[in-house]
Each structure stands twice: as structure tokens, then as C-alpha cells.
Design goal:
With 470 residues, the protein is mostly helical. The protein has 19 helices and no strands. It is a multi-pass membrane protein.
Length: 470
């Protein structure tokens, strides 16, 4: 059992007894978010690769892809609801029990998707996509409460001067979950024919999520409550209705937090969901050759232009780039402690703005190295902007509404920055006749909004973190 920490600037707590070991805290926050993001990303991958044909078979290629991404966006509508629901319990009964509930909610929904009949099954033409929407909504509910709880688990147990460093561990769950989910899709694509993969192989990642959920539950159930919440209970300052209290005392922080996170969301879903579609769609030459092989005329109006990579190849390219995401997520923690969260994020957001205009020229530099360089640079920026967020957003709020406030800001940002972003990306992609230029402009616009929110915010590195409940 650790001794009480000293009261110093930037301390995560003032004279409290740490009951959770560092290894247990970091493992629980990392394992949980890795599982949650794995669940979330396998849906994003399936939405690009197989769900258009399986759940929307009567639409043309473009319409089916838009419908699939529209269902993808349903989860982002559910996430703010999940943030309110689980934020309420996280600030009322504690972080530990709430984190177990979020994991179960998303895990059961993900497993159920793997059991759904498709719209190709007679009699399920309408019910199958309807059930997909419901399960996707439940996924969003779970993730809506997961992130904030995992961030608080890490940062409210962190020693002095290390909140941002501890906070990178739940953030590291995003690249780890992405790599696990997409590596599994690569292996399935490699060892299965396209026919087998479309018939039942796509279900495997969803069904295997049950194993990961069991591991996550085992780790989280063994945790003790965080010192910050214990202080709130001891002081008798538990909010009766955290939602009302958060908006009454911290409405400005909720708005700022929403826009501070905006560019991060737009960048990430551009680099994953959109680029996967863009990278694997046929070039004009490939589409024309396929039509000719089938003895049909080539109709450009039904063709969605892309880079023409094989699914397996482009997934590997994405996985390589996500390694950089993970590395720079870890790098971001020490940088945020040394230079401050605000200054570091201002520089990173400025770089995201530049990247928005540079991505199209980067892609055109070389048939292979251009797109790969674009993916690596984008994911590097993603690590630098995403890593500090689990310290930045919770630090905006007092301890008695911290779960609710940070969860609402994080998930409202997901609605604006990610919920409809893939659909907007597809529309801008089509508007640009196959060029991602306008997609990059959209990203640059989001960076401007985030930059403005950062300018209006204050540095939070040195705030007291446990007893600031007023």
C-alpha cells in the first residue's frame, strides 16, 4: 500500500491513501478501453467492407455505403445519452461499478451483432437492418459512459505531475483496439475466400469479443474506488442530479470541452472509416475492366472512385499507421506535462489544419508511399491530439460532476465530429469526383474551431484534482 502523496502543484490528490496499485490501475484502464474500441472499430470496418451488401442489398453501391455509415452514426447519437446515464451513476455511486456496467452494455450488443441474420435472409429484409440499428445504439450507450470512467480511473489515481502520463493509458486502448480488430479482419480475409467471408466470416470478430469482455470484467471487478470519489463522499458533496449540477456550474467547460475534442474526432474517423472506403474502392480503370469482364457497359454514375487497393493490403497499411498512433499517444503524455496541455494542443491542432490541405498532394506523390505517408502522418497527429484528452477534459470539471461533465463534452463532440463525419466525407468525396480535397478542407475547418476553443480555455496542468468539488 502506497504512502500518502504530498501536496504539490499539479498533484492528482491532496493527502490521500492510494488503494489501487499503479499496475492494476493502468491495466484496468487500458484493457477496458482496448475492448471497447475493439468492439467499436470492428463495426466501422464491417460498415465499410460487408454491411452495405449484407444489410442494404437493394440499394446501389453509393446508397448502400451511405446507409451503412448512417447506421454507423446511430451510435454517436446514443453516446451523449450514455454519457448522461452512466455519468449519473459514475458521480452518484462511483467509478468502479459504472465501468463494469459500460463494458457489459457494449460487449453484449457487439456479440449480438455477430448473431444477427442479414437482409439477404428471406423474411428479414426489414427486421435485420432494424436490429442492427438497435445493437449499434446499445454500442453507443456503452462507449458513451466508458471513456470518461476509464480516464478518471487513471487520472484520479495518478501521482503528482503524472496525470497526463497516466491518462495516456486509456487513450492507448484506441490504437490497440483498432489493431486487434483489423488484424483479425486481415487474417480472416487472408485465410477465407470472399464468398466465405461474406457468408459467415465477418461474424467471427463480433463473437470473439465475448472473450475480451470476460477478461475486462475480471480486471475491473478487483479494483477499489478512486480517491477523488471517496473524498466527494466523505465531504457529503455527492450531487443528487449530476446532470443538472454539471450544466449549472460547468456549462462553459462543457462547451469548451466539446470543441477542444472536435478536430480529434474528425481526424480519427477520416483516417479510419473514410480512408478504408476510399482506399479499397476501384479506380476508374479497375471498374471499367470489371464491367467489361462481366460483359456490361461501364456506368460512371454508379461508380464510387477510390485508390484501388485490395482490402487486405489497405488494412495492413492502416495497421502500420496505427502503430504510430500508439507510439505518439504515449509520447504526448510527457509533452503535456512538460509544456502544458493547452500549449501542446495548440501546436498539434495547427499541424492538423495544415495536414487537411496537405493530404491530397501527399496521396499523389507515389502510388504506394504517398497514401502510406498520408496515413502515418495523420495517425501521428492523432496520437498527439488524442493522448492528452483524458487529462484535459476531466481537469475542466470539479470532482463531484467530473464523470458527467467530461463524458458529456467528449460524447457531444463525437456527435459533431464523428457521428455524421463518414457520411459527410462520402458526400464530399463524391462532390470532388474522387479527390479527397474537400474532405481535407472539412478537417481543416474542424481544426479552426478546436484552435479557437483552446485559445478561450485555461491551462489545467496545475489544478488540484481530488478536493476541488466547489
Amino acid at each position: 500500500m502506497s504512502s500518502p502523496s504530498k501536496t504539490t502543484p499539479g498533484a492528482s490528490a491532496e493527502e490521500f491513501e492510494v488503494k489501487n496499485s499503479r499496475g492494476k490501475v493502468l491495466t484496468a484502464s487500458l484493457v477496458g478501453t482496448s475492448i471497447e474500441f475493439y468492439d467499436f472499430y470492428i463495426y466501422a470496418t464491417a460498415a465499410s467492407l460487408v454491411f452495405p451488401a449484407l444489410f442494404f442489398p437493394n440499394d446501389n453501391e453509393t446508397t448502400a455505403l451511405l446507409a451503412s455509415f448512417a447506421v454507423f452514426g446511430v451510435a454517436f447519437i446514443a453516446r451523449p445519452i450514455g454519457s448522461i446515464l452512466f455519468g449519473h451513476f459514475g458521480d452518484r455511486i462511483g467509478r468502479k461499478g459504472t465501468l463494469v456496467a459500460t463494458l457489459l452494455t457494449m460487449g453484449i450488443a457487439t456479440f449480438a451483432i455477430g448473431l444477427l441474420p442479414t437482409a439477404l435472409t428471406p423474411g428479414w429484409e426489414i427486421l435485420a437492418p432494424t436490429l442492427l440499428v438497435i445493437m449499434r445504439f446499445c454500442q453507443g450507450l456503452g462507449l458513451g459512459g466508458e471513456w470518461s470512467g476509464a480516464a478518471l480511473l487513471a487520472t484520479e489515481n495518478a501521482p503528482a505531475g503524472k496525470r497526463a502520463i497516466y491518462g495516456t493509458f486509456p487513450q492507448l486502448g484506441a490504437p490497440i483496439g483498432f489493431i486487434l480488430g483489423n488484424l483479425l479482419f486481415v487474417l480472416l480475409s487472408h485465410f477465407m475466400s470472399d464468398e466465405t467471408f461474406f457468408a459467415w466470416g465477418w461474424r467471427v470478430p463480433f463473437l470473439l469479443s465475448a472473450i475480451l469482455v470476460i477478461v475486462g470484467l475480471w480486471v475491473r471487478i478487483s479494483l477499489m474506488e478512486t480517491p477523488a470519489f471517496e473524498k466527494v463522499v466523505q465531504a457529503g458533496e455527492v450531487s443528487k442530479v449530476p446532470l443538472f449540477a454539471a450544466f449549472k456550474t460547468s456549462w462553459r467547460q462543457i462547451i469548451l470541452g466539446t470543441f477542444i475534442m472536435l478536430a480529434t474526432y474528425v481526424l480519427f474517423y477520416m483516417m479510419t472509416a473514410f480512408t478504408l472506403s476510399f482506399g479499397t474502392k476501384a479506380t476508374r480503370e479497375q471498374a471499367a475492366a470489371k464491367a467489361a469482364e462481366a460483359g456490361e457497359p461501364f456506368d460512371p454514375s454508379t461508380w464510387v472512385p477510390g485508390l484501388g487497393y485490395q482490402r487486405e493490403t489497405f488494412l495492413i497499411m492502416l495497421i502500420v499507421s496505427v502503430v504510430f498512433f500508439g507510439i505518439f499517444t504515449l509520447v504526448s503524455g510527457p509533452l503535456a506535462e512538460k509544456y502544458g496541455r493547452r500549449k501542446m494542443l495548440l501546436w498539434t491542432t495547427g499541424a492538423i489544419f495544415v495536414f487537411g490541405f496537405a493530404m491530397t498532394p501527399l496521396i499523389g506523390l507515389h502510388e504506394f508511399f504517398g497514401p502510406q505517408a498520408m496515413l502515418i502522418i495523420g495517425m501521428t497527429l492523432m496520437g498527439l491530439t488524442f493522448g492528452p484528452m483524458s487529462a484535459v477534459l476531466p481537469e475542466l470539471f470539479p470532482a463531484n460532476v467530473r464523470y458527467t461533465g467530461s463524458a458529456i463534452a467528449y460524447n457531444l463532440s463525437s456527435v459533431f465530429g464523428a457521428g455524421f463525419a463518414p457520411t459527410v466525407f462520402i458526400a464530399l468525396w463524391a462532390f470532388g469526383d474522387g479527390s479527397p480535397f474537400w474532405v481535407g478542407v472539412y478537417l481543416a475547418g474542424a481544426a479552426v474551431l478546436t484552435f479557437g476553443a483552446l485559445l478561450l480555455s485555461k491551462e489545467t496542468r496545475d489544478i488540484a484534482y481530488v478536493t476541488n468539488t466547489k
